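From the methods appendix. Each design record in this collection lists the tokenized structure first, followed by the designed amino acid sequence. Records were kept in a plain field format so they could be parsed without special tools. The example shown here is representative of the layout used throughout.

RECORD:
FOLD TOKENS (451 positions):
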């Protein structure tokens, strides 16, 4: 009897353990459900709860970190996981699933600091973000993604990219899309690689409501957004509030007459416009954010994250990009770099959970980038206490100078995240963080600077 009672209590605990609040519904229109009940404004959305809309339905969800998740008509979706760790962003986990229809996702504050742990799944594709506002339309066989701001990386489910994974799937078969690529979208069809194509239907799927918040008001455009929706969603600082359907700005002091503006009688002297200071070159910062044995971290993760953009976490190491002038990848030519600085560790598995970590040295390193082919390759020697191992890596280069390389399970090859910059003038520089398997028992994790 006691065992039965304990089992029942554990089952109840498991039932309630998953029901964490992922966000709150701030707007509903038309036919819309949360689970098996009508969706109501002000109600909480739990992790895993199915959200669905009918032919005229809309649901706006404000996520736990002030992000935005919008379902347009004829859509089914759920927020699978929304776990935020403000103290340690590496523990943050966010996952959306769009089963069918059209949805829009705008990254919240916590997601922007843990992009490596964000995943948006469709039946055929995995979507990761670069700090982003994007829209997805999908059925069971084809998904299409367009970007309002920031960028996305999209991959079909193949090889190591699986629906049950977390974070973006990055590699040779993935494709990136940024807001700068107007009129284009990423398309994934079941069984095929992701590809960037021209958008033939502006608006991507179901059209947005007139009161759907704009990601960014274009120059010369009048923003059209519901004042109440903007206030609830917390985007009032990013959009202009106007009366729906009129294009006339709302008077925040309605009911109180606006005092007349005095007409100046003296000529207005316009002061000279000071020159706009030139932005510094953006550059890469990498460091070990976790202790190894008695060695303290070399990078203050929280302090660096407060002023720079996190690009990747890989084991002991983090890679950031500082604010400043955007790096633009050349359309042709190539460049070669030599290894200038590095730090690496080898983990050896002895079975039974017994793992030892030892420091290693990198030598004879080269990094070659082919801008015309948007590709790179790298080689280096890893010197351990017992032997020297040749490590290799290869992958793609994005338009803003990021490097993505996948080992695809090959021994001696590396999973790589990196960044090119003009920090040191035309000759440039680069930084990479990486991991890979050496043999049956050993793996390597490290970082390097290239010039």
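DESIGN:
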């Amino acid at each position: 009897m006691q065992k039965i009672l304990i089992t029942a209590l554990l089952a109840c605990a498991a039932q309630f353990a998953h029901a964490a609040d992922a966000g709150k519904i701030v707007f509903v229109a038309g036919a819309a459900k949360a689970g098996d009940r009508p969706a109501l404004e002000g109600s909480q959305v739990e992790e895993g709860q199915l959200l669905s809309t009918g032919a005229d339905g809309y649901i706006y969800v404000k996520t736990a970190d002030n992000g935005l998740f919008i379902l347009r008509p004829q859509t089914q979706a759920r927020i699978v996981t929304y776990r935020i760790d403000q103290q340690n962003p590496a523990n943050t986990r966010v996952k959306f699933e769009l089963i069918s229809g059209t949805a829009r996702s705008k990254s919240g504050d916590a997601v922007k600091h843990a992009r490596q742990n964000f995943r948006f799944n469709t039946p055929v594709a995995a979507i990761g973000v670069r700090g982003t506002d994007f829209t997805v339309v999908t059925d069971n066989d084809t998904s299409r993604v367009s970007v309002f701001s920031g960028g996305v990386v999209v991959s079909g489910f193949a090889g190591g990219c699986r629906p049950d994974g977390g974070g973006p799937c990055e590699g040779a078969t993935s494709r990136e899309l940024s807001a700068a690529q107007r009129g284009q979208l990423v398309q994934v069809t079941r069984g095929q690689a992701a590809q960037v194509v021209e958008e033939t239907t502006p608006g991507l799927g179901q059209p947005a409501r007139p009161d759907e918040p704009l990601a960014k008001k274009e120059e010369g455009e009048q923003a059209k957004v519901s004042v109440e929706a903007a206030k609830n969603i917390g985007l009032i600082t990013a959009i202009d509030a106007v009366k729906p359907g009129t294009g006339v700005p709302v008077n925040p002091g309605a009911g109180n007459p606006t005092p007349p503006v005095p007409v100046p009688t003296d000529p207005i002297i316009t002061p000279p416009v000071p020159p706009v200071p030139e932005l510094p070159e953006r550059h890469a910062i990498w460091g070990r954010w976790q202790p190894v044995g008695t060695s303290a971290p070399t990078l203050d993760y929280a302090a660096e994250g407060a002023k720079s953009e996190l690009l990747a976490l890989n084991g002991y190491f983090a890679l950031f990009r500082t604010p400043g002038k955007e790096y633009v990848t050349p359309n042709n030519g190539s460049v070669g770099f030599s290894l200038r600085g590095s730090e690496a560790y080898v983990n050896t598995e002895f079975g039974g959970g017994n793992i030892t970590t030892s420091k290693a040295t990198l030598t004879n390193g080269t990094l070659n980038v082919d801008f015309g082919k948007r590709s790179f390759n790298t080689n280096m020697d890893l010197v351990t206490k017992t032997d020297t191992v040749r490590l290799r890596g290869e992958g793609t280069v994005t338009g803003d100078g990021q490097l993505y390389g996948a080992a695809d399970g090959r021994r001696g090859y590396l999973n790589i995240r990196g960044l090119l910059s003009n920090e040191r003038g035309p000759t440039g520089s680069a930084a990479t963080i990486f991991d890979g398997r050496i043999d049956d028992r050993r793996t390597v994790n490290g970082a390097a600077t290239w010039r």
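APPENDIX NOTE: DSSP finds four helices and 28 strands in the chain.
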